[in-house]
Structures are given as C-alpha cells and as structure tokens.
Amino acid sequence: MQISYESALILTISTCILLIAGMLVFIAYIVRLYSQRQLEFKTNLQMIENEFQSQILRTRIEVQEETINNVAKEIHDNVNQALTFSKLNLNLLNYQDLNGVKTKISYTSDLITEAISSLSNLSKSLNADFLKDIGLVSALEMEVDKVNRMEECKAVLKINGTHFQLSFEKELVIFRITQEAIRNAISHGQAKQITIQIVYHHGVTIEITDNGKGFDTSVSKNQSKTQHQGLINMKKRASIIGAHIEILSKPQEGTLIKLEIPS
Question: Distance between CA atoms of 161 and 30, rounded to whole angstroms?
Fold first, then answer.
C-alpha cells in the first residue's frame, strides 16, 4: 500500500510536532527540576547562614558574659583595693610631718591614677563591640595582663609575621577559643606558664601552650560531653569559621592547642 505525498508530509509534520512537544516537556521538566534544586540550595544556604549567625551571636553573648565577670573581679580586686588604700592613706596623714604628708599624698595620687586607668580599660571592655574597636591582638594583650595580675600564672603573648586584620566574626571566635584555653589551663591544668603565639602568614596560626598537668586525649574522646565541654566548644567554634584545631596533650606534659585560620 503506497502512502500519498500528502499523507507522508502530514505524518512527518505530526512526528516533528510530537518530538518538539516531547522536547519542550523534557526542557520544562529540567527547568522545573533546576528551579527546585536552586530553591533547595538557597534554603540550605540560608539555614547555614542562620546557624552561623546564631553561633556568632552565642559567642558574642558568652564573650560579654566573660567580660562582665572579669569587670566585677577587676573592680573587686584592683579598683576597690586601690581606692581603699587611698582612703587609708588620707586618714593617716600627720600634718606635723610634712615629708610624710608629701610621701603619702604622692603614693595616694599613684593609687588613684591606677584606679582611673583600670576603670578606663574596663569601660572599653564593656563596649559590646570592644573587640571590633581594639582588634584581636590588643584584646589578647588585655587577657594576658589579667592573667599576670593574678600572680598565680605567668602568661606571654608573642607575635610573628606582619599583622593583618581578619573579619570580626573570625577574630571574635579566635578570642573566645583563646579565653577558653587560658581558663582550662589555669583551672583544670593548674598551669604556671602559658604562652600564646600568633603567626601571620597566608592565614593565621595560633598556638596556646601551657606547662600544666595535661591529660590523656585518647581517654577524653570517649568521656562524656560534660567532662570536656570546653574542648568540645573550642572544636565547634573552630568549625564555624572554617578553621582547623588540634589539641595535643599528655599527662604531666602540658597541653598545646593549635588553631589554623584561613585568611
């Protein structure tokens, strides 16, 4: 049976229309699938961003709480003591002894100057964005100074390389991790010497070393979270900013915490 030219033409056109329609359906499916994937990607990205901001906010709150605790301790231990000594000196003035009066007034002036300086530093640290204002290095210098004032442990800060500023979020997390490491070294490790070394290169490397009693890291991995919450917090915060953290320690051999942050 022969197919007429008109029938063949109609069949060809119909086939082409079906193919085009099929291709259009396929393209529409691909576009829809792409749109869904894009929406899922944006949703996941937003969730990650929200989690990141949430972690940063929690870290900021913790830093502020730590700052307030330090302020209270500083006022009690230093400012209050300086002003009390000043009052005692003035009450014990013997105006018949002019040389003694001059000496006591000079000493009282020094004490008041020290109290004013302490209050000035405290007012700066109470600023919610004090870290943003003074930078990471200055903030760590303040932490080292606080440790040395306790006279129970000696702390040293060393800077190598050409200093450059990281984003506020990264410096905030670094500061909090360092605070945690210092507190652990003193309260748990009973360290008498802490060295904080910052190396600026393509990124930033921070090493916090102490001569405390150390611990067995292989055991700590299997212990409950509550026993090593500080270490867990440090690792979690490091992951927030894409940093690598390494914690090396042995019983009676101190602890080394190494933090590597990309630029």
Answer: 52
